[in-house]
Description:
There is one protein chain. By secondary structure, the chain is an alpha+beta fold. 34% of the residues lie in helices and 30% in strands. Helix 1 runs parallel beside helix 8 (302-322) and helix 8 packs antiparallel against helix 9. The longest helix is centred in the C-terminal third of the chain and has 29 residues, at 330-358. It is globular.
Amino acid sequence: MQHDFDLIIVGAGLAGNCLALALKNSGLKIALVEANSREQLRHSPAGDRALALAAGTVELLNDLGAWRGAADKATAIKHIHVSDRGHFGKTRLDAADQGVEALGYVIVARDIEQHMADLVEKTDTVCLYQTRVAGLMSGRDAVNVSLKQHDGSSLNVSAQLLVGADGGNSTVRKLLEIPQQITEYGQTALVTTVQSALPHRNIAFERFTEFGPLALLPVAGKQSAVVWTRTHEQAETLINVSDREFLAELQNCFGYRLGELKLAAPRRAFPLSLIRAESMVSGRTVIIGNAVHQLHPVAGQGFNLGIRDVALLAEMLIDQHERDGDLGDARLLKNYSRQRQQDHGKTIGFTNSVVKLFSNDNLPLAAVRNAGLTMLDHLPFAKKLLTRHAMGLADRLPKIGERK
């Protein structure tokens, strides 16, 4: 049966663009559908956020040929310092101890998003910006998709498989009526950038407090990206106070390891919850990235988990295509979902446990967790396991670039 495309990807964010790049030499006919224009994506406030890229994620981006053009905009994390405010426990991770150049990198989301979008436009992928999905239906041989373009015209297309990579507010997930499991943390993340009096020396700080974690991630010069978790009420107050009052509270919470801090960017607030779709697959459609999972920012695992969604899917689709198989085959998609659910379960479970363990002031629990941090700091084998987890190297990474 002839289709308009072999594959339709909905969402031209990082997950969608990564998948298009991973498949650029596969021989598949691909359409990339995005509701916004390139200009709207370029100026989105979400582009201001700092992304912590695990070393494993950088390996995958390098396989795609996407890292070389972004590396000069990224800052290496060579050390990680974990501490518990008001207590003695701490753990330090060091890239040199693991024989690697960096444990990860920090990059402004807009920088890597625009770079990857530029790369996709140089491929044979058909990019349909300012086009939204109005409806979809899976049949025996194809998924049929109704598109509405910015000029009001309609377009009906078909493909073997549709991939929903359209973010946390996924239209694809809603059209498929896939339920979500939502865990409210009662927390809001305050995000900004600070300039410090002292150099950060490529150290990423993760400081736990009774209200939630505070992370300072190294970026250019003496600047650090701040992700500060507080209760909803505290966050609302802190987003509205003066810069001086905000900095005083931040300094009180973080301390003076980097000297005096000054604001270098506007403050933004994002309510936090754990959101997980109850299914990744429906008919000839699969959802990936933030469309299927949204995590607490502690440990910075959300984006890295989404890239692993992309990597495995690309690997399996290329194998299927080389065997002249159906990309929307139910057994293939079921196998993909089963493998990804294992990674999702481990990563989400780890993140959720860290939030619950460290976002409270229970004294007996504080004593236990601080003893654990101190013990971990003196056990090389345990520290190596934690470091490999933080680097996204605990499991095998799909080789998405080896068929180029």
